[in-house]
Amino acid sequence: MLEASENNDELFEHFSFSADKGQEPIRVDKFLMNRVENATRNKIQKAAKNGYIFSNDIAVKQNYKVKPGDIIKVMFHHPPYENLIVGEKMEIDIVYEDEDLIVVNKPPNQVVHPGHGNYSGTLLNALIYHNENLPENRDGRPGLVHRIDKDTSGLLVIAKSQIALSSLSEQFFHKTVDRKYLAIVWGEPKPSNGIINENLSRDKKNRMIMSVPDEESIGKKAITHYEVIESFGYVSLVECVLETGRTHQIRAHMKHIGNPIFNDIRYGGDKILKGTIFSKYKQFVENCFKIMPRQALHAKTLGFIHPKTNKKMCFESDLPNDFNSCLEKWKNYSKNI
User: Fold this and answer.
1) What is the pTM of this model?
2) How far apart (Å, rounded) are the C-alpha atoms in residues 306 and 42?
């Protein structure tokens, strides 16, 4: 192993992970493969060979066995590209704007902010072009107080002033923001309305997803209220209200109760989970997957207190075309079930 102190002042941290207390010994390249999105074994091994992977501040090779409590870091001689945000001229669906904030309707297949593998074309690149003076949050990301997944569509609020950034961040922290989502899920949740109060943490086998841990003491508190709006036999339209806002919360919670979101690849919703074995039905579902090639999740409602006027503001967004088309196909199909 190599001491890293000589070059530490020249290196920039790109990723940092803490091995769980129950971590079984595993090669560091496999450990990182499960945690870094879009990473390949070849890239990780090359980084290790060049002395860019560290365990507890000591450079290690790719065959190093990660132990419980290890702090694994990936560092390079250049800053993370996501910190070099450049404004890009792109269309933004602005629902509302004043001198303190912007409410936007994010389309599906757009990343909110630059990150590993997505350094341009993000919503934040467009917002920086629209307004280059957005205040930075504590992570150095201009204007952001919350986010939604790349393939989730719908409403976000962006802070344009420091006052707005502080006020909105506080509202999200204290869980006073109203957030309602619409989702198409497999099957029909039972009961038809309820509260999912289950902690979430990184899945032990697949660190790219969240899951409900076996022990109640593990993970972060996560609460989702749901109600079935309409059932179509093999799938249902469900409204989800977030009481907390954990990563992939709705997606992980719906999978946990046995109703994954339709076409959610990471959470198993991209397979035919309900229905018949007939080829015509299989073709119908595959056509629905093509119409909506993403998870069927939309951030429909967003409500908060305006940072300056102290007035309650509430915004609604229409379902995007792909969601609407998929929904209509299921409505029509269910009439013949």
Assistant:
1) 0.78
2) 49
Structural contact between residues 173 and 304, judged by C-beta atoms closer than 8 angstroms: no
250: buried, middle or exposed (CB in 10 Å: 19+, 13-18, 0-12)?
Answer: buried
Which helix (H) or strand (E) segment holds residue 298: the answer is strand 297-305
Annotated active-site residue 318? The verdict is no
Least trusted range by pLDDT, from 10-19, 77-86, 315-324: 77-86
Helices (H), 1-149: 28-33, 41-49, 123-130
147 burial (CB, 10 Å; 0-12 / 13-18 / 19+) is: middle
Query: Which domains, ranges and CATH numbers included, belong to the chain?
Result: 2-79 (3.10.290.10), 82-173 (3.30.2350.10), 178-334 (3.30.2350.10)
Q: Enter the tokens of residue 111.
A: 């990343």
Listed in sequence order, the DSSP H helices in the chain are: 28-33, 41-49, 123-130, 162-173, 249-256, 279-291, 321-334
Average pLDDT of the chain to the nearest whole number: 90
pLDDT in tens, 246-283: 999 999 999 999 999 999 999 999 999 999 888 999 99
* Whole-angstrom distance, CA of residue 119 vs CA of residue 114: 5
Instruction: Using DSSP, state whether 12 is helix, strand or coil.
Output: strand
Catalytic residue among 29, 70, 100, 149: 149
The residue written with tokens 């503001």 in the block is 313
The span from the CA of 253 to the CA of 51, in Å, is 39
Contact 92, 36 (CB under 8 A): no
Handedness of CA 254, 255, 257, 261 (dihedral sign): positive
Amino acid identity for residue 91 in this structure: E
Could you read off the pLDDT of 161-203 as tens digits, one per residue?
999 999 999 999 999 999 999 999 999 999 999 999 999 998 8
